[in-house]
Amino acid sequence: MTPLLLRQIWAAVSHSSCDLKELSDVEIAQAITEQTTADLEISAAEAKVMQRYIETRMPLIRGLLENDAFGESQIPAASL
What we know:
Blueprint: H1 3-15, H2 17-20, H3 25-39, H4 44-56, H5 58-66
Helix pairs in contact: 1-3, 3-4
């Protein structure tokens, strides 16, 4: 995966944190994938790699969402 794609994934997580918190892991992965693929034109192969990446990072994503680690006071948008 490219650095740009990784940044887009984590930006999608941070910008949707309130919306994602109540979803299942599968729904979270789908929402992040849909948001990222809407922002960037990526191939089907890249989408599959991205989906696996998101699934393997789900404990981290869940932890960040539960602890509201993407609050504006903790991570400035410019640093993403």
